[in-house]
Fold each of these.
Amino acid sequence: MNNLTFFITGGAGFIGSALVRHLISQTHHKVINIDCLTYAGNLESLASISENPNYQFENINICDSNAIKQLFETHQPDIVMHLAAESHVDRSIESPLAFLQTNIMGTGVLLDQSKHYWEQLPPDKKASFRFHHISTDEVYGNLGADGLFHEQTPYDPSSPYSASKASSDHLVRAWNKTYGLPTIITNCSNNYGPYHFPEKLIPHVILNALHGKPLPIYGDGNQIRDWLYVDDHARALYHVATNGNIGETYNIGGNNEKTNIHVVSTICDLLEELAPEHKQANLHYKDLITFVKDRPGHDTRYAIDATKIQNDLNWFPEESFESGLRKTVQWYLDNEQWWQRVLSGDYQLKRIG
């Protein structure tokens, strides 16, 4: 598994950039980052490895079939890891068709071009080729008070985003069953960590608190998510892409079920410790918490059973929620230049939805 060529779609996004940084810093593989740099794509998240000779960026939309075909012909990848997606639930409620275009049609284009490329490979390279599709636990829908999502959980998506990801999962399995394309799927729980675009809950709360703005929480804040530190996820994805079994699905979770209100309160406590100078006079960060109308179709609980990837591939998360969240808050405090540049664009700490 030395000196392979990886296609990483969406490599300028949050999870994708963590994966690219991991591959370039921890392996000798070549990485072709394919990203069309939508609002959430940020090449500054890759500044630490951008000059590495094993890294190359291609500003291409995955829906552009001819451009994707040319990339396959030029770079001859060994593994495709597909992360490019519209990913924010609230945006999918407001603008669903964009999610269908990228998440369904874009995946279809990648599968089609991967199939044509794979079919003409010499036998040894054909046998080792992999198409790894990175998905979400939201395809499973709403989980009750008990139990966990496992790889056989029936799909029951609640939002246009999760429905589009469920559709792309089904397409990947169909290309495996119909054409024999060697595919693998992973479904992950909520990611958090450095370089996270500020519309998502954890960075949104951190930056709003530092600016003295309200910390909006949907409904009563008792919705539960399983939180996964993004660098743990990147390690897991590499394990699956290089050692996972063809045709299999692996759930990746952090074993960190927390209510939204607990997450926000913990961030406030960390900021009290790490950034007391940003507080308004005579106020605590928790005083900024504001409960707002719940979003439509809001699932109450997600939780992942990661037993399969732990048993089969010996992957375990290294970060607890407490250690990972402390690292995350500290990163945002130490990297104001990164998030200030994000905020200087179209996004101004407004939750979409």
Amino acid sequence: MLSRAAPWSPSRSRGAAAAVRRLGDADTRALSELAAADPVANVFIAAHLAAHGTAAPTAAGAEVLGAFDGDGQLASACWLGANIVPIEVPAEHAPLYAASIRSSRRRFASIFGPAKATLAIFAELHGPAARDVRPDQPLLVLDGPPAVPADPLVRVTTLDDFAALAPACVSMFEEEVGYSPVAGGSENYYRRVRQLITAGHSFARFGARGEVMFKAELGSVTAAATQVQGVWVDPLHRGTGLSHGGMAAVVDHARRIAPVVSLYVNDYNHRARAAYRTVGFEQVGTFATVLF
């Protein structure tokens, strides 16, 4: 497995960081090069750069912090938005980011990313209690055709499908995270669902009554890699193998965009992990998620 990971994880020499600061437009190229060190693990920030074209703060207030070495070179970075996402962060940089995060007085829904960096930053925050810590989430990739036939009934969704998709998306989120994403208001969550549909990054199989039987989305998309999220099978159809053909169809669609398809999964979700192995995914790393 490690040899398969090598093309996406070239070694990078980073010395001790001398300072952490907010990145601006002038840092865009440096951040892009940093993300390119591992296009799979860093697909979130690479997709953001592809969409917005700048490392500068967004209109919504998200920003990227960067740690610079003694030569003034960007050595690592950390996204601060609704979530905290480390980018090529070695453990020794975690205290610097944690100090900046504490001083920002922001509230975050989660920290997610490569396990060592995610858990190191969380340990250095010394404050917010976690609702759940998931320290072992295998990062999986498939860089070729799926090992099983694709379900021909899985298709790209349209906005006409929104009424059927929305309840399935909410159900998936509740199962995965433990609370409803629309409990405090549905506008933001449903906007995101519509964005994924409009982008052509939402896929589903529908039953005879128009109900969603299987669904998944591409949460992050670049020219190098995509990351699948929100995989869900209607409980009435679980255990039937529906996810095998469904995921194979998603892979076929995703590989028209980028050559590598990735996702990460909870280590304890044995059924999902077995399904992904059947489709042909292999582990190349480990993510972690801390939920607040």
Amino acid sequence: MSAPAAAESLVQSVDWLAVAPPTLTAVAALAVLVADLFLPEARKALLGWISVAALAAALLTLLPLLDGDRSTFCLTTDPSVCSYVADRFTLVVQLIVLAGALLAALLSMTALKDEPRRLPAGEYWFLLLSSAAGAALLPASRDLATLIVALEVASLPAFALVGLRHGDRRSSEAALKFFLSSVTATAVSLLGVSFVYAVTGSMHLTVVAEEIQQVDGQFSTLARTGVILTLVGFAFKTAAVPFHFWVPDTYAGAPLPVAAYLSVTGKAVGFTGLILVAVLAFPSYAPVWGPVMAALAALTMTVGNVGALRQRPDRDRSAVRLLAWSSVGQAGYLLVPIAAAAYTDDASRAIGSTLAYALMYAAVNLGAFTVVALVGRGRPAGRVDDHRGLYAARPVAALLLAFFLLSLAGLPPGIVGLFAKVTVFASAVEAGMGWLAVLMAVNVVIALVYYLRWTALLFRPAPEDAPEDAPAARRATAPLTAALVVTGLLAVALSGAPQLILRFTGVTLF
């Protein structure tokens, strides 16, 4: 082969349609940062609309990917081994990530105006879009190097978002805890990845899955250690117990839209990495990581629900802190199907259960954060008790929050939450983990207490010493109303036809 022909064979063609969602988001981040230099202060709000439009456009680029799987950045020696794959799994996670970022952006447009310490708009939108770009890249990553890079691109801007309130001690403390936990997770993951690369000689997940089965006996301990360290690093990102300690303080100290973003997009990032590494790269080590995932699921759902149960309204507890503990408990449910994948021949069905649950959780949890943001405009303290009497002041918002909370609890009329929990429960039963299914049922009952306690509060009379119509003291802005309408319609529609989520994620109940 001549030299020019050999050089030409090494040049890869990029499938721009496949990489459009993260690429468009990243380009928008740079555009916002540059535009911030030229826009006068009075027109900084335009940056928010640019960011919302960019995220909406990135969501639209997912539509052509419905036609079939696409891949790019493949090895020239083996085109079947690629670093970027846009399949159904990628599509579902990118939908969660980008939709979560879009709704967080809508909340942010109001929050940036209401913040007592004005946040720098240009930096805020740049960081949010940068984090969303990394989060959208991660589910398509099919080699360990790209996976770690995408994880850090999603995480590093999030640290700055949490600590962007200059001079706020709680915000700085929250950012520091988030940063230290994430850096520790990355260091542990990188150590594990280095061990895996040492024994397999490859970074691509499919190649690792083949080579790690053929490791010589003298390197088996190194391989096992690499598998465990890599998974432990990703467990930090999912806020699984005992790696959850940063969640309540980080959510409570961050601006509310950032907390909403982390509760959905941040969680999706961690679980996506965990699924890709465990199921694609280390299927032969299922007897090792399966019991670990099951134990993490049991601990996480129990500790999270008990922590949320302690956030009583009569103790001036923060609504965001309660949602933070609730998200830890929900993370336990999301771990159940991943653990089940180790004990079943049809791992894709188990992973589909996790995706179905994640879609439900994203819609209703963002809806709950939206109502909390609405109430917070009149009651900046953000306490659970501030929602007392909300039905009398804002009946639509109260009914929607009640619907979101009942969906998280898995009670009618929140049918979408009930179906999502049934899929997770079924995955545990089919995998022969009856004990985990029973523990999940117990935790669902525990969660009912604090979800119903908050729901009942909405319909009680407001305290006599409270300002008149306190929850309705400030009108909802257009972006806040749009976020509430979108989440409300989505949750109600999916409760009417929950099979749409199940079909989209490839789950069959019967």
